């Protein structure tokens, strides 16, 4: 197969990362960029080795009708995902879409049904699965050399609050942010939780004013007996703090990218400030994987069933925080 032809919808932070990574694989080119603000599209196009055609959102039928386009990268604000995904799948394009795939489990299911009906892959951007640290924990747990895993703890903290406006269109902290942590726990364990409980608070007035939370704790119980917890905070003054720890029968896995052990002892580097630095490799590996999938070289490791389960768990977290009750999960 020759180079794949791609279109990007949404030329902001995520769109720029994925467009550059797709081109860097040497296996794809970006032919079209669609954005509500064409200047954002032009700025991204100027950064690419070959210019893309920039189209204003609303005038993008020509992109969907372009038979040479194999696939679309969807990186518009989350509120717009469902409409764009469905339009692209109906036009016969494969789709990579940022998380959360849509803002509720029903529409997520509908999108995967459409993907199946049209025979075109749909992949949700759960990039953290492709992080070498997460991958190494996943592989060690699956290999089983340290025995049964008993618990997983995640600490996931952003350096700066999002704006109230972002929080409002993002689907809220559980769907927008905790979905990553929920996803990697389920990916490592190969099962979904049977019970979910969450508490939360908004310290930031802008976030409180849109009914969202900026600090949440989630606990989950899995059918195998594993307990997992997520401590998520939208603002940590000391940087982008991402830690995952797994306790197994024969030891504790505590990999971290920030602690360096050498013959001179242990040194702790400052935390990186942004997700773009912490997950640089993950984004590259993720886009490489997507291109393998579109090229028909493999099935995606991020399935529809998993993507739908993650959004159901995020919905259960919100229900729990609002009712103060634990939620028994139903994945039917
Ligand atoms: N996986 C990750 O680590 C990660 C990181 C950042 C963002 N994201 C996700 O990526 C998506 C975009 O977030 P972002 O931070 O890049 O946002 P952003 O605001 O930086 O960029 C969004 C872009 O979409 C454009 N846009 C808005 N409405 C549009 C429409 N209807 N059609 C076309 N373009 C439109 C905006 O003009 C802007 O250029 C969100 O779903 C977010 O959750 C994921």
Describe this structure in words.
This protein has 2 domains: 4-125, Rossmann fold (3-Layer(aba) Sandwich), CATH 3.40.50; 128-328, Dihydrodipicolinate Reductase, domain 2 (2-Layer Sandwich). Helix 4 (81-90) packs parallel to helix 5. The protein has helices at residues 13-24, 38-47, 61-65, 81-90, 105-118, 132-143, 164-170, 173-189, 205-209, 275-278, 280-294, 304-323; strands at 4-9, 28-35, 53-56, 71-74, 94-98, 122-125, 149-157, 195-201, 215-221, 227-233, 241-248, 251-253, 259-262, 265-268, 327-328. Strand 13 (259-262) and strand 14 form a beta hairpin. It is an alpha/beta fold. Strands 12-11-7-10-9-8-15 form a 7-stranded mixed β-sheet. It has a 6-stranded parallel β-sheet with strand order 3-2-1-4-5-6, sandwiched between helices. A two-stranded antiparallel ribbon has the order 13-14. Nicotinamide-adenine-dinucleotide is lined by residues 9-15, 34-37, 40, 57, 75-78, 80, 98-99, 125, 127, 176, 275.
